[in-house]
């Protein structure tokens, strides 16, 4: 059945909107999948120096992509014969393989066949020494190899897809630059400390230097002094995750650092600053940035930070808030609809996590943190 010009035009519009961030790439990929006839479609952006994905957008079957990356990427004959070096901007299996070749190949038999996949069509939109970007459509055996009409559609889409990917990469770069600029400006205004993967202090910004003049004990022998041993363990685990990360992590983590009698413990946010495509950072290379939290915090974000820093369960956090508001342990149990002994056990767990022995000490410490 012939594909209408309106459907192709809509797909082109979706591609450019996705490039600008006005709609998800999956919307366009679904349109591409419908135009070409496949099981699912991908947008792949690959760092050719490391062989790792910079970005992977897909219509569905993400578990298939994960299985492919983990077990079958290295034996995929399409990569070496079709893409490295790239011979065509639009590629498909029959350019290199016959059905007999496919029947004899372990990649087609061991990986594709169990998922009812067989044929492939791809569009290269960017290929340099460092980067490959392109779209791929995976087809079932019942679809057959791509036909002439579908190839014509891909040729018609090609210049638009090249421009869309070019725009997408520029927009992504711009967003990254804006985020870095905002982070830098915030780091200049707020005390900030860079750490390596072992937690060693590498540098401190001017605002951080001013804070250290007020509270010299914040850093001892090149190491940040956290409020509890639990904070130290959580920070070390977070640094190890950041050092091994292959992509930017969303969000931040909050840690409490020892202050003095006047300030009490200080809340710092931990932000990843290691984005090197999976390369393991050296010991003297910054992995994360600790920034003092601004005073303007909503109760929700404060509760979130408290829960994350002290590894509180939702039940423990609920009990802690009632105690902070002045309720007795028995009243807290009644309000929450739990047995007194249950609330008592939760309170013991909370005090152990806060490293205090008495409820009054817990309330005093909580008051300092909330302040």
Fold and architecture overview:
The protein has 371 residues and is α+β, with helices and mostly antiparallel strands. Helix content is 49%, strand content 18%. The protein has helices spanning 5-19, 25-36, 62-72, 77-82, 99-104, 106-112, 148-189, 206-214, 229-244, 299-309, 314-324, 329-336, 340-354, 359-370, and strands at 40-47, 52-58, 90-92, 119-127, 131-139, 192-195, 201-204, 219-220, 223-224, 253-257, 266-272, 288-292. The strands form three sheets. A five-stranded antiparallel beta sheet has the order 2-1-5-4-3, with helices on one face. Helix 1 (5-19) packs antiparallel against helix 2 (25-36), helix 1 packs parallel to helix 7 (148-189) and helix 12 (329-336) packs across helix 13. The termini are far apart.
